[in-house]
Amino acid sequence: MAVDTAAPADRRSWLALYTLCAGTLMIVLDGSVVTVALPTIGRELDFSQSNLAWLVNAYMIAFGGLLLISGRLGDLLGRKRLFLSGIALFTAASLLCALATTQGVLIAARFIQGVGGAMASAVTLGMIVTMFPRPRETAKAIGIFSFVAAAGGSIGVIAGGVLTEAAGWNSIFFINVPIGAVILIAALRIFAPDRGLGIRAGADLVGALLVTSGLMLFVYSINRIESDGIGSARTLGFGGLATALLIGFVWRQARARTPLLPLRIFRSRYTSGSNAVMVLFVAGLFGFQFLLALYLQSVAGYSSARTGLAYLPGPIVIAVISLGCSAKLITRFGPRAVLVAGMVATTIALALLGRLPVDASYAVDVLPSVILLGVGAGLALPAVIGLAMSGATPADSGLASGLVNTTQQVGGALGVAVLAALAGSRSDSLLRDGKSAAEAVTDGYRLAYLVAAALMVLGIVLAAAVLRTPEAAAQPGPADADAPDAEEAGIPAPQTNA
């Protein structure tokens, strides 16, 4: 067993972690809170259906498009500086959203929110793994972060329904202002100063333009799938242009003297493999949250508040698993085994929803899947995030953090768009064949859930094949003396020449 030479995290590090998680929770909540409030905003500001979609699209395009570059800017300029700037911008944009009286102002403010959210979110994981060098503490810290990231969406559905009904749609944005102010004050007092590599270490403006425009167009094309169809000229055109820009970015980074995003990080199979697995897992998880909300409201007749309460067991289970035992399980069995177990639980949950009846009973047909998905997320997310971050050097931890967040956003957007498109296509076909609306819609959701379960199975196979523990980690020696407790925690040591 390797000798543990790293100092244990002190009280200040744990307070910094809670501050980072508070910022993450505020940003994660915002997405689902807004979704619940969309019908009310549309009525009061007279949005058309297509313009209303831009309240989501504007945020997602900025957020998803800027995560990767924001992570690298954290490495170059300092992660503390970027987090503070992002929270400040997000808070100011939230106030602008709350005060907006026109469609244009609200959409623009949502875009600015996305920019601030990307800046703060992109560096969070990089700061966490830097503050907690001991593998046991890393696993515990990532478990806490994973709970916030996984449960925040469901909590947002509940909070959005309650706030919108009790105090109006403006309140979902106003509430971010005092929360953001507290986070800023705490971060200024608690976070230790850090110095980045300097902007000259990645002064590649052409690369920055290529990756930002490519990711923004890619997110936009994903968001158009549901309305335009996956095979439409617009979807394929924007998707093709986005792909060309991203290929150009990779070509540029392979040849630039000071690349913005060094490609060496992708040589680690833990980084590349974990992010590929995460796309599949998050696609199924986000697809579940989106489709179940539609089913409960459009077929089962639930109100928005009751729909939110239907999700409540999920965050509770995620909290018990992520905060109570995920770190111990990862230490005992290794992250790959815990990841696979979590994905198996999620596969079973999605398969059960694949038999959802029109007149479903919540206790019999829905609740078991909600609980199993909570178990799956509580186990899988801390494990896959830990593996994804293990392949980064300290100098690239911001980049690795931004990549993990980008993967989550792209995987979630793809899952929602593709599964919703499949469900809609199946429902339309059944309606033409004379099925009732409830039967057709439910059958479309069943198909989408079974496809999501198939994606999980593919992720399990990929995790088992790619995320193997190397012999060096199984037999520690002088070469891994800088990887304290790596064997015992089951987490690969960070790559020094990834």
Automatic annotation (TrEMBL):
Subcellular localization: Cell membrane
Chief location bin: membrane
Region named Disordered: 473-498
Ligase keyword on record: no
Entry keyword annotation includes Transmembrane helix: yes
Major facilitator superfamily (MFS) profile domain sequence ranges: 16-471
Topology in membrane: Multi-pass membrane protein
Pfam families, per database record: MFS_1
Name the UniProt record assigns to this protein: MFS transporter
Organism in which the protein naturally occurs: Streptacidiphilus cavernicola
